Amino acid sequence: LTQLNEEARANPNDARVPEAIARVLIEAGRLQEAYDAATKPGVKPAASIFSTIAVQIWRKVYVDPKKPQVNLMSTEERTRWVELGLQAIDRAAKIDSKDLSTLAYYGLLLREKAKLEPDPEKVLEIQLEAQKWTEKAVALSKATAPPADAAASKPAN
Fold first, then answer.
1. Distance separating alpha carbons of residues 8 and 4, to the nearest angstrom
2. DSSP string, 121-142
3. pLDDT tens digits, 40-97
4. Is 29 left (phi over 0), alpha (psi -120 to 50) or beta?
5. Burial 86-105 (b: 16+ CB within 10 A, else e)
6. Using CA atoms, how far apart are residues 106 and 128, in angstroms rounded to an integer?
7. Cβ-based neighbours of 50, under 8 Å, separated by 6 or more
8. pTM for the predicted model, two decimal places
9. Which long-range contacts link 14-22 to residues 24+ away (Cβ below 8 Å)?
10. Rounded Cα distance, 88 and 92, in Å
11. Which of 66, 90, 121, 134 has the fewest C-beta atoms under 10 angstroms from its C-beta?
12. Strand, coil or helix: what is 84?
């Protein structure tokens, strides 16, 4: 990271360096710092950076209701992470609205937001928005999947 920061200072116009810094921070689990690095003025990272941050945040906050577990994260902390994840996934969607992972995780993060919302009316509103993102992901998946007939008619190797 130190070497990348030095390279960023030496080559401020090299767009690859800030993205590399964000990737290193993501790998280190430093998601807030990765987001901050990716959103610095003049930095234009790929949608995949924001999508990866959001996915990692979802993994951090998701609690499977079928597998009760001890979760030491406070509601406030979980809320902060979910909001950051939504900011990241929103940026990813604005850069690349045709990325299946982005569409799917947008819905998943919204579902986590709904779990944190105390107002039942807002919960329903958030869940409906999440469902729209899920439907977009399903539609894109169907649109980009090879036709079933084509897969069946391919000769075996």
1. 6
2. HHHHHHHHHHHHHHHHHHHHHH
3. 887 787 899 999 999 999 998 987 666 656 567 788 999 999 999 999 999 999 999 8
4. left
5. bbbbebbbebeeebebbbbb
6. 12
7. 35, 38, 88, 89, 91, 92, 95
8. 0.82
9. 15/43, 15/44, 18/43, 18/45, 19/43, 19/45, 19/46, 19/49, 22/49, 22/53
10. 6
11. 66
12. helix
Six-digit token string for 13: 């116009």
Tokens of 44: 């234009």
| Rounded alpha-carbon distances, angstroms, from residue 71 to 3, 56, 60, 74, 80 | 36, 17, 10, 8, 15
How far is 11 from 15, CA to CA, in rounded Å? 9
- Residue 133, both tokens: 């993102």
Considering only CA atoms, give the Rg of the chain.
19
Q: How far apart, in whole angstroms, are the C-alpha atoms of residue 40 and residue 23? A: 14
